[in-house]
């Protein structure tokens, strides 16, 4: 039986309905690279029984999105730079992330997901960070094919001895790997226990973990889901991240089975 992984969703209005949805590349990477069974979790906010969900799943995949975490969640007033928003998603993912970490449920957080992870643990975000930090080299390509928009764009340096270093050691050349860049925001003040795992050359935080977490927790600012799947131009580091997440989910599932059998 495959490990069951909860996948976050956005609440989107597509006339005349509201949809709980997530982009297909995350689902494809979960199935084909992590070898897990994805379960889409609606953004129900306080109506979501997080305890029941985490009892039954073996991992949590927090996806990227066009929306951003509302700055009220890190005590900042909203501006045009912070938009667009998805408050139902915020109210679902932030408590879900905290609960998953506390319970040792493996967690992989991507793009918006790494920002949610940071905010969930008390950190903050820089909106329109290229303009506000006066840096270049990161972008959100609005035009072109998906392959062009998700092209590997710049290098990151992985911290020696980090969790990500262990995952990517066979793929990094001199500690560096190429990643894509589709984000308009970046981590600012780091949340409690957030540990930097990788940075771009300009100092932008590209990957984090959580110190003392009882289970697997990795957040990445780029989009490994796009190139992780065989049939595309498969990218080794992208596939390795999802493989490690899948292995952590299967280990968590086995631990639950062993505890149930011993009870």
Protein architecture, described:
The chain has 263 residues and is α/β, with parallel strands linked by helices. It is built from 9 helices and 13 strands. The strands form 3 sheets. It has a 9-stranded mixed sheet, sandwiched between helices. It has a two-stranded antiparallel ribbon with strand order 2-3. It has a two-stranded antiparallel ribbon with strand order 7-10. Helix 3 packs across helix 4 (112-120). The protein has helices at residues 24-32, 50-56, 87-103, 112-120, 129-133, 146-149, 163-168, 224-227, 236-262; strands at residues 4-8, 10-14, 17-21, 37-41, 59-62, 107-110, 125-126, 154-158, 176-179, 186-187, 194-200, 205-210, 217-220. Helix content is 33%, strand content 22%. It has one domain (4-262): 3-Layer(aba) Sandwich (Rossmann fold).
Keywords:
13 strands; 263 residues; two-stranded antiparallel sheet; 9 helices; 22% strand; 9-stranded mixed beta sheet; Rossmann fold; alpha/beta
Main sheet?
Answer: 9 strands, mixed
CATH superfamily: Class I glutamine amidotransferase (GATase) domain
What is the annotated CATH architecture? 3-Layer(aba) Sandwich
Q: Structural class, from helix and strand content?
A: alpha/beta
The total tally of domains equals 1
Placed side by side, the strands forming the largest sheet appear as 4-1-5-6-13-12-11-8-9
